[in-house]
Amino acid sequence: MANVLTNTGFEVDLAAWNKIRNTETFTRDTSEFHGGVASGKVVTPGVQTEEGIDQVVTTTVNSSDPVVAKAWMKGTGSFSLRATTRDPIGLYQDIGAWTPVTLTSSWQQVTATVDATSDAVGVSIELSTGASIAAVTVYLDDLELNTPDIGGGGGGGYRDVTTVRAG
């Protein structure tokens, strides 16, 4: 499995990450971190569902391949994680179920998986309030979006990976 995300720990900036609803406050924070020297901090006002951040990546995923999202989180409220696959025009193809977590003052790792039902050309990781409308403060760090290596054999497979902005 290969982690296809970029800027997984927010060590320098917030590049490659997008606010989902544009109601969120999304900043880099150096006072709370799981690894490295920084984390991403998301504060949602609780005005609509799915407030949070995402990253969409162009990469090849074959039918029946698992796509596994992982994130370290801490904070107040409840936050969710999910993985998706995307079709050639960037629309959702396979949408994983929201994996919710009740945030605490300790770091906890959350994992969500979706299996591709057909070949896909993109994947995404979404971290948000999910179906809830809630004010949340969450710190995120050491994020992963893992897909099988294409081409097989000991990590030597070719992978075309480009980060793109979600519609």
What characteristics describe this protein?
single chain; 167 residues; mainly beta; Jelly Rolls; 7-stranded antiparallel β-sheet; 6-stranded antiparallel β-sheet; 52% strand; globular; disordered C terminus
Question: How does this model look, in words?
Answer:
This protein has 167 residues and is mostly beta strands. The protein has a single domain (2-149), classed as Galactose-binding domain-like (Jelly Rolls, Sandwich). It has no helices and 13 strands. The strands form two sheets. Strands 2, 5, 7, 8, 9, 11 and 13 form a seven-stranded antiparallel sheet that branches. Strands 1, 3, 4, 6, 10 and 12 form a six-stranded antiparallel sheet that branches. β7 and β8 form a beta hairpin. It is globular. The protein starts with a strand and ends with a strand. The relative contact order is 0.30. The model is unreliable at 151-167 (pLDDT under 50).
Please describe the topology of this protein.
Layout: E1 2-3, E2 18-19, E3 25-29, E4 39-45, E5 52-61, E6 66-76, E7 78-86, E8 92-95, E9 99-102, E10 108-115, E11 120-128, E12 135-147, E13 162-164
Antiparallel strand pairs: 1-12, 2-5, 3-4, 4-12, 5-11, 5-13, 6-10, 6-12, 7-8, 7-9, 7-11
